[in-house]
Amino acid sequence: MKITAIKGFSDIFPGAVETWQWVEEQARRVFAAYNFAEIRIPILEKTELFSRSIGETTDIVEKEMYTFEDRDSRSADTTDVTKLTLRPEGTAGVVRAYVESEMYKVEPVRKLYYMGPMFRRERPQKGRMRQFHQIGAEALGRGDPFIDAEVLLMLGDFFRAVGLETVALELNSLGCADCRPGYRRRLLEFLKTREAALCDNCRRRMERNPLRVLDCKEPGCRHQTKTAPSILDALCEPCREHFAVVKKLLSEAKVAYELNPRMVRGLDYYCRTTFEWTSEHLGSQSAVAAGGRYDGLVEELGGPPIPGVGFAMGVERLTMLLRMKDSGAPRGPSVYVVWIGEKARDWAFPVVHRLRREGLVAEMEGETRSMKSQMRRADKLGARAVLIVGDDELQKGQALLRDMASKQQQEIALAEIVAKLISGKAS
Ligand code: HAM
Q: Could you state, in order of their start, the residue ranges of all structural domains in the chain?
């Protein structure tokens, strides 16, 4: 019997993987310009890390984590067990690493980014996987609004670099420990007057987490909460000022945004600025990137009171959008060598080797095939140029170079081929 992959887990095959690599490269380039450095953190962490940071009552911690018991290697009798979890997100691990290594003692301001797989046992659907990939960034040690704007501008620059202009930024502020409890109370009072009309899920979670009701996708709940008090009217003065500066900096940088006071996010660590970049082309799972500020998290995980802000984007959703607009990494070899006759093959083999050494993507066959079949293959692979050599050409000391897009052909001297192809490498 065939063994299949686990539901919600996918392979990423050649053909798609090039876009992933290209996206990762663009992220590295853009993030480096903002002075972010890469951190690589474990995929497996103690369960407590996530329950404490993401929040005990969130969907992620309540229902979606891959958790198992492992014998505790520290204890001699090995009867103690430690609960371990496949990371459902990256922020908790980055903050744990920052606190554990005491990075902040040398320099509290750290700008870190990461990429890799995350795991959530959600119901798989378009744009929602059980193993998915994030590229995320966290700026630790700065509480000022300039860094919130910086992180958003960086993400905007990244979207521009990959050619995604259609994503829209939704912005909110969730206030802080001073102003959110008062808002929460008022919202709960409001929700109680409409309790009977809310969905089962919202009625159940209303007391524990009334803000999540605002985020419910049920039309009935959306209708009922239309006139709910807005968090943006409830912010304390410092939160209001902080948010005003973020908005001003975005406007000055010509980054368009829409305020969405209903956005509450599915993780509990947020305060103040929160955001989602969405695309209408993604269907119901419309967020391609999301994040916000989490000023209490470092302390919650045993560090000093150090603020933080960051985001993560979903690489599956991002590459899905890139595929839709047919952009992304250039595909196929830069040159495919079509050879006719053994002499031509023996000439071509070391030439292809030299081209590859120079960083060109070059390809050729090893077995005799008709010219037609080799041309078809070049086309199928998406080669940008084809170099045609036969024994006749060899005798004349020439080969034919065909540009596959323009269909133009030119003869070039064999001795000049490598130099000529390398000089056109960037094109
Ligand atoms: P999040 O909103 O849970 O935030 O996830 C960020 C992004 O990951 C989403 O916008 C989406 O693109 C992608 N994503 C999430 N779940 C799935 C899934 N099941 N399948 C496919 N893609 C998914 C966080 O994870 C926070 N750690 C972000 C953050 C960083 N906040 C501050 N710093």
A: 17-179+235-324, 335-423
